[in-house]
Amino acid sequence: MADEQMAVDRSEAPGDGTGAAAGGAGGAVPEEALSAPVGTPTGALPPRPLDAIDRDILRLLQTDGRASVRSVAERVHVSRANAYARINRLIDDGVIRGFSARVNHERAGHGASAYITLKIVQNSWRTVREQLGALPGATHIALVSGDFDVLLLVHTPDNRTLRELVLTRIQAIPEVLSTRTLLVFEETDLNTDPHA
């Protein structure tokens, strides 16, 4: 988990000969740019058909988001121009939503992690999602089916901070009916390069 991922530089011209990866963490597609076609449920786009090369590119970038276009091209056996065009198309089509660093939360001073399940008032998902997204340490939010409605992953410096987050911030949200906190003892990131 100590590995990092960074954005591929979309400004690199296919023929510039550098093949360098970018610094920075841009590349996310704005939500407003993802307008759904008529007949598609709100917020959903039809899946983009991917071929074997696209899938290989995605796997490589998930493992190492700092990989240069040249390196990706060599590893999937296409030209640099072809790899560049495919990566840009995957970004433009919303398949790649952005690039980020994979953080070792414990080394970064967040020694406590937890999944928090929430039951919320019916039809309050958008309001709750916005409030949960503003919480310090919140890293993943999902609307789910089953015995609870929302699954939230948080990382905090310690258990005391975690307790305060749950008891004074999350449970104070009017639309939250109940919570359950599941402490994380150990995590394994499945998108890491075993040789890194």
Average pLDDT, to the nearest integer? 77
Please tally the helical runs, counting DSSP H or I stretches of 4 or more residues. 5
* Spatial strand arrangement across the major sheet: 2-3-1-4
Low-pLDDT regions:
1-42
Rg over alpha carbons: 20 Å
Strand content: 15-25%
Q: Major sheet: size, sense and barrel closure? A: 4 strands, antiparallel
Q: Let me know the number of strands.
A: 4
Decide which structural class fits the backbone: alpha+beta
Q: Please give the alpha-carbon distance between the first and last residues.
A: 10 Å
Basic shape = elongated
List the secondary-structure elements in sequence, H or E.
HHHEHEEHE
Helix content range of the residues, please?
25-40%
Any overview of this molecule?
- The structure is a single chain.
- The chain is of the alpha+beta class and 196 residues long.
- Helices cover 28% and strands 15% of the residues.
- It is built from 5 helices and 4 strands, in the order αααβαββαβ.
- It has a 4-stranded antiparallel beta sheet.
- Helix 2 packs across helix 3.
- The N terminus is likely disordered.
Short overview:
This protein has helices at 52-63, 69-76, 80-92, 125-133, 159-170, and strands spanning 112-120, 138-143, 150-156, 176-183. With 196 residues, the protein is of the alpha+beta class. α2 packs across α3.
